[in-house]
Design brief:
The structure holds 2 protein chains of 2 kinds.
Chain A lengths: L1 H37 L10 H30 L5 H6 L2 H14 L19 H7 L6 H4 L4 H19 L5 H19 L4 H22 L5 H51 L7 H20 L2 H29 L7 H78 L4 H26 L4 H9 L3 H13 L4
Helix pairs in contact in A: 1-2, 2-4, 5-10, 7-8, 7-12, 8-9, 9-10, 10-11, 10-12, 13-14, 13-15, 13-16
Chain B lengths: L2 H28 L10 E7 L2 E6 L11 E4 L10 E3 L2 E2 H7 L4 E5 L12 H20 L4 E6 L1 H12 L4 E7 L11 H8 L2 H8 L1 E2 L1 H9 L3 H15 L3 H14 L5 E2 H13 L2 H4 L3 E2 L2 E2 L9 E6 L7 H10 L5 E6 L5 H4 L1 H4 L2 H10 L3
Chain lengths: 476, 353
């Protein structure tokens, strides 16, 4: 492909050199003409004038051919790198049309008739329609619904394959559809009111004949199918009518736009400011035409026409979808509606899954909080156990101290009077027993849940407070 | 009229035209691939074809509250990062913002029944929760662009506790305007028929509608002008990048488009407080966080009135608007916005952390 571009660049180089040569010749021609005016207002036509014009026209033809090749090769070279819609707009044909139109618009001194592309400039509305609309420019193709064309192709292919050659009545269908497709092909190539009217009239006549065949009494599945096809033809007629309405509106708008452009050209010429430069010419054309188109596009009439046009096209497409599915229903091929059902199910499952995940996350969060509470309870319980162990140790220590004290006290008591020695040990024993009984009762282990509750209960600090008191006892 | 000069000028111009074309053909041959959206980022979360990216920081000091960009579904987010010297994302990163972005991907037949609830309360919410968890934050900043701005406003109304600041850019909220042909045409459209017939609406169909907003400028004049820049390889590359973005139009999930056109464009339910998704009524008064509305003065797709409408209906008192004398796309690629837009957004956010 690199070679192709190099080759094209080489060709363009030659073309550019030829243009340069011609530029000099034209400049010389201009000087001669001006000189002619100076000399008694006569036009002095140089001897090689016709040859020059011929060269220019040849160059234009070469340019056209080059443009077509370039268009094709760019599509191939860039097809996988750029979007298809963009490649469609990379339209060198439009460039040629502008070039032609610009040359056609060129004014010559002394009222001399334009020798280039006579009458082929876009100041002429009908020329615009012929050359611009029929280029199947994407803007215009918006109104011709190429997707629908694709659908038609598919349907004809499918139906021909499944029924045309195998089933009774297939030949009739094939014939009908061939004619039908012909009408649609004709439709997209029609660019004038007259053409639309003729097409509608012819289609209407054909529809009557088709209905006679399709709606004639039949038996079995063919009757139903035939009726569906008759409906499709009826919807097609509606589509053709709305297409023609839209086509006429665009045609009328293009004519108005052309008139406005033409008026602008005259005005600028009268003001001695004709759009001589190619870029000026193009910009003026765009500006003046677009103003008219946008005015129409913003009208209620256009919005309604567009609605009718798109709606009729969509109704027809829906009917085609139905017909294609009807045909495919007899085969093991999955249909769009099967796929739609499946995707709906899958989407619902995904929604359910998401909801389950959210619930799972909520539950997980709750479980985590509970686990943390349990862990905190365990920790608190362990702290309590430690405290209680200390309390127990202190109690034992206290008991031991009491015993020691009792022993210490009992020794002198043996020598003291009997009434005094009887009283003191009894009181000491009672106190010690009471302390030792309390400690094991507090140590009774509780369930973790109870421990958790306790850990969070406001009583906990009290427990700690109690534990602290005995801890300080030994130092007292 | 000096006819000599006329001939000379015309032919000189045509010579230059031919020369540009020649050089342009050489340049076309030398361009290997058109690349865009090259700022470094990593995939941090995904659900099928929908993805959440985090951009790599480009400043030493990074904003502690991340910003999630929600782009429209009707085109690709690559517009925000078209090329290094025309990248709103790069500019935000340079301002120290921590940028995340949702890529909606390319819808296909599997997305036929997808609704706004699935996108807003589903994937968007999942992404926002993911970011909140990662940063241990209750709320993050949302920056919604075009249709993504509408989604962001809806989300902020439904989940105000998760949005720290809301920024909408060229985003329609009040659809009751005739300032744009698109709005006028949408009101007349039989959207049910469209969705029933297509299921997934082709992106090309949407593109054709956009082209009709300037039918001859966008389909003819632009390509005539292209010849003038073809000789400059850099400019040609820029042109191709922009064109690649324009025609990179994902197909639209039918039910989402049905809701968008029917409930928003035609019924204008959002500002009326009648719009419902996932069984919840969207009340814009619930938008209690600071709001910044950014719009383009010459926007023919989403006119200023449609954007500014949000300010009238939100519950917050901390609300501001910011405009530029540019068009819809110009907001992101124009030289007028490159230097100042991102700093102004970053300043506004930083004052509200």
């Amino acid at each position: 492909m690199q070679d192709f571009f190099k080759q094209q660049a080489g060709w363009l180089n030659t073309w550019q050199e030829q243009q340069q040569k011609l530029t000099k010749q034209f400049a010389s021609l201009g000087e001669d003409l001006t000189q002619g005016f100076a000399e008694a207002g006569k036009q002095k036509i140089p001897a090689n004038f016709e040859e020059l014009l011929k060269s220019q026209q040849e160059l234009f033809e070469q340019f056209t051919s080059f443009g077509a090749n370039l268009q094709q090769n760019i599509q191939q070279a860039w097809g996988d790198k750029l979007p298809a819609e963009l490649l469609r707009l990379f339209n060198f044909n439009i460039m040629q049309q502008f070039y032609k139109s610009w040359l056609g618009n060129m004014k010559f001194p002394g009222g001399m008739q334009n020798p280039f592309m006579g009458g082929q400039n876009w100041a002429d509305p009908s020329s615009f329609l012929d050359s611009f609309m029929k280029q199947e420019h994407p803007f215009i193709s918006t109104f011709s619904n190429f997707n629908l064309q694709d659908e038609l192709q598919k349907m004809f292919g499918m139906f021909g394959m499944l029924q045309g050659a195998k089933l009774p009545g297939g030949d009739l269908y094939s014939q009908l559809f061939t004619t039908y497709q012909g009408y649609f092909n004709q439709l997209v190539n029609t660019g004038t009111s007259k053409g639309f009217d003729q097409l509608l009239e012819a289609f209407s006549r054909w529809k009557e004949q088709a209905d006679q065949y399709l709606l004639a009494p039949q038996v079995g599945i063919h009757r139903e199918t035939a009726q569906e096809f008759a409906k499709a033809i009826s919807l097609s007629f509606d589509y053709l009518k709305s297409f023609a309405t839209m086509g006429k509106l665009i045609e009328e708008t293009a004519r108005k736009a052309g008139n406005r452009f033409q008026a602008k050209l005259v005005e600028r010429s009268l003001n001695d400011e004709p759009p001589i430069k190619f870029s000026d010419f193009c910009s003026l054309w765009t500006k003046e035409n677009e103003a008219v188109f946008l005015e129409i596009f913003g009208s209620d009439q256009f919005a309604k026409t567009q609605r009718e046009f798109t709606s009729s096209g969509l109704r027809l497409k829906l009917q085609f979808n139905k017909l294609v599915e009807k045909v495919l229903d007899q085969t093991p091929i999955a249909l769009k509606r099967d796929l739609d059902l499946a995707t709906k199910e899958i989407l619902q499952l995904k929604r359910d899954l998401r909801q389950s995940r959210q619930q799972q996350q909520l539950l997980a969060a709750e479980a985590k909080a509970a686990q943390q509470a349990v862990a905190a309870g365990e920790q608190r319980f362990e702290a309590l156990e430690t405290t209680l162990a200390k309390v127990q140790a202190l109690a034992e220590q206290a008991e031991q101290t009491a015993r020691t004290a009792a022993v210490t006290q009992s020794a002198p008591a043996e020598k003291a009077p009997a009434a005094r020695s009887r009283k003191t040990p009894a009181a000491t024993t009672k106190k010690a027993t009471a302390t030792s009984k309390k400690a094991p009762a507090t140590r009774t282990r509780k369930t973790p849940a109870a421990a958790g509750k306790k850990a969070t209960s406001p009583q906990s600090p009290k427990t700690t407070g109690r534990a602290k008191k005995p801890a300080g006892t030994p130092t007292e | 009229m000096n006819y000599t000069q006329q001939f000379q000028d015309s032919m000189e111009e045509f010579k230059s035209f031919a020369s540009n074309l020649k050089k342009g053909v050489e340049n076309l041959a030398s361009i290997e691939e058109v690349t865009l959206a090259e700022t470094a980022k990593e995939l941090v979360y995904e659900d099928g074809k929908r993805k959440l990216y985090r951009y790599r920081a480009r400043a030493d000091k990074v904003c502690p509250v991340p910003t999630l960009i929600i782009y429209a579904m009707v085109n690709r987010y690559t517009m925000l990062d078209l090329q290094p010297n025309r990248s709103m994302i790069r500019n935000l990163l340079d301002q120290g913002m921590d940028v995340y972005l949702i890529d909606w991907g390319y819808a296909d037949r599997m997305d036929r029944h997808l609704t706004m609830d699935d996108l807003i309360n589903g994937f968007m919410d999942d992404c926002i929760n993911h970011i909140r968890e990662q940063h241990q934050l209750d709320a993050i900043n949302l920056l919604g662009v075009c249709q993504g701005g509408t989604f962001s406003a809806i989300y902020a109304a439904l989940h105000p506790e998760k949005v720290k600041n809301l920024i909408t850019m060229v985003a329609p909220v009040d659809f009751d305007t005739k300032d744009s042909l698109l709005f006028a045409w949408s009101k007349e459209m039989d959207v049910d028929l469209l969705i029933d017939a297509y299921g997934i609406v082709p992106g090309d169909l949407m593109n054709q509608a956009y082209q009709m907003l300037q039918p001859l400028t966008l389909t003819v004049q632009k390509y005539i002008n292209m010849v003038d820049i073809m000789a400059d390889a850099d400019k040609l590359n820029d042109f191709l990048r922009m064109e690649s973005w324009i025609f990179d139009s994902p197909d639209q999930p039918g039910e989402v488009l049905r809701q968008n056109i029917k409930n928003l464009f035609q019924q204008n339910e959002l500002v009326k407080g009648e719009f419902e998704i996932g069984g919840q009524l969207v009340d814009l008064k619930q938008i209690s966080m600071p709001v910044l509305v950014v719009y383009a003065d010459y926007d023919t797709l989403v006119p200023p009135a449609a954007c500014k409408g949000l300010l009238e209906y939100v519950g917050t008192k901390d609300k501001q608007e910011l405009s530029y004398p540019v068009g819809h796309v110009g907001m992101f690629v124009s030289g007028k916005t490159q230097a100042t837009l991102a700093p102004r957004i970053a300043d506004w956010v930083n004052q509200r952390l």
